[in-house]
Please model this.
Amino acid sequence: MSEHDSEPSSGPATPTLIRAVLFDAGATLLYPDPPVEEVYGRIFAEEGARFSSEELRDALTAIWIEVQREGPADRYGGVRGEPEFWRGFLGRVRRLLDGGSLSEDAFARLSHHFRDPSAWALYPDVLPTLEALRTRGLLLAVVSNWDSHLPHLLELCGLSPFFQIVSVSAVEQTGKPEPEIFRRTCERLGVSPAEALHVGDSLREDYEGARGAGLEAVLLDRKDQHPAVRDRIRSLEELTRRFE
Model:
């Protein structure tokens, strides 16, 4: 736990010197629809695996934690390493579930699904917030731990016109919570870290990572899981009001 975890839930308004707002992508701007667990479960079941929804959720969580402990900040292994990363991750999940293996057909189907923009949905507060911030003259960027397909996905989802910069861990070869990806993004925007505000849903990667890099940060707590965090919002609409 960091010192920020025990701070009071209400904090000061965003400083007027903020010139740029940086956003996380997953669980901040967009989310998988249907959920990841449902898609994995369907394809694993079609491959003959037998498991409960709880067992699948636990397996996904356990393997993801292992991957984070084993790998660098860029958990995807760079652009050229992405297919092998995902193949290895999904294969480990399948083995943990029932000792089975992941077929090439299953891997291809999963890869195709998550690269399809129809598999993703925008939160209803995203477009109004981005439009309002852009109208106020703020520079906007994305800083995300994602594979190299994210810029194209944002384009297909209609979000690209809002962002001057999209920084992706697989391309940058570094990711949150390391400070480098935040600092590079600020430099490309032409602002200092102190003039930037980062918004994301992860306490460690977004809130603490951005503050460690010298940025202001707001935790997007859609599910009300971190009431003790000082600077948090329940929706992006609250972010807009901070600039009024």
User: Anything to note?
Assistant: The two ends are 32 Å apart (CA to CA). Residues 36-118 form a domain with the DNA polymerase; domain 1 fold (CATH 1.10.150). The first helix runs from residue 36 to 46.
